[in-house]
Amino acid sequence: MNSNDVTTKTDLLSLTPCELEAFIVSLGEPKYRAKQLFAPMHSGVSPMDINNIGKALKAKLEQNAVYFLPKIRRKLVSALDGTVKYLFELSDGNAVESVVMKYKHGNTICISSQVGCRMGCAFCASTIGGKVRDLLPSEMLGQIIVAANDTGERISNVVMMGIGEPLDNYNNVIKFLKLVNCEEGLCIGYRHISLSTCGLVDKIDTLARENFPITLSISLHASDNATRSSIMPVNKKWSIEQLLASCKNYYSATGRRISFEYTLIAGKNDSRENASALADLLNSHLRSGRGGMPIHVNLIPVNPVSETGFSSSDKKAVEEFAKVLEGKGIRATVRRRLGADINASCGQLRREDAQSD
Ligand code: SAH
Questions:
Q1: Domain range list for the chain
Q2: Which residues of the chain have pLDDT under 50?
Q3: Is the CB of 123 under 6 A from ligand 1?
């Protein structure tokens, strides 16, 4: 099927079961055909390769619809822990990254939500060339389908922590969440999905009203506005106080705990004083009053990106930081670095590839 025509033709993999049914009926076909298409398409089979749907429908689909899965342009497998990193090529030649990590509790995929990013975080490789475009729901789903087929293993958890800011592509991400959860499709439970955001407060508030029981991760990275604004431009629009108020609201609306990401950058935000200020900040904003929310901080030693000039805190500083947090009642874990030998942190493979063109 012609895959380059997503603008004029219907993107089959972005349709919910109801929408697919309506589309099939609009082509003059019986609606049960939608069921014959949905499950195979969501396991990676092109409609042209489905046997029982008839030649007439295939011809109509060829005319009016597209079905596209990302192609594997590069694949790196970690010799250390089996982490697999993909550089996927989309139908228009753009590329995004996904990483499959193997944990005891199942396989987790980290997917991208945009080609590039416009949030401008100073330490991040994905934002260096700005945002090229949003991903379609089908393109987010496609990363999971292709990775599952390629590894031959079920993927049971999804983290939206790859290239892009998911809440800056809000409608497509919401559609993707509904699709990935579909029983007839990948059937991944909302509780097994995490969405990471740099803090688009208006969108966090809207998401709270949708009431999906997904886990929200907030990229905090600093405990005062001056430091946060110097590394994350989004903080100039929404301050830390506004962000935490929105987190509190999200928790009361959904009952889902929120985790905070804190990237440790040597000399910037990694002192004991920074740790103490972080604990005070979270305790005072999120735990005041009755029924304070459970708080978890993920500490991530920054991955050096050559263009950013930031370097990673040493092991001792990271441990000290965690200890100070724990001492003030905040649970903290130091993120284990999977796929260290394949540069598995997102954004870097896409840049490397673009530079070698
Ligand atoms: N835009 C979203 C999701 C993508 S980034 C967000 O900001 O949360 C996923 C996580 O990786 C974020 O916490 C981000 O701040 C972090 N990150 C980006 N570049 C990094 C780097 N060089 N080292 C460590 N963490 C990084």
A1: 5-66, 71-356
A2: none
A3: yes
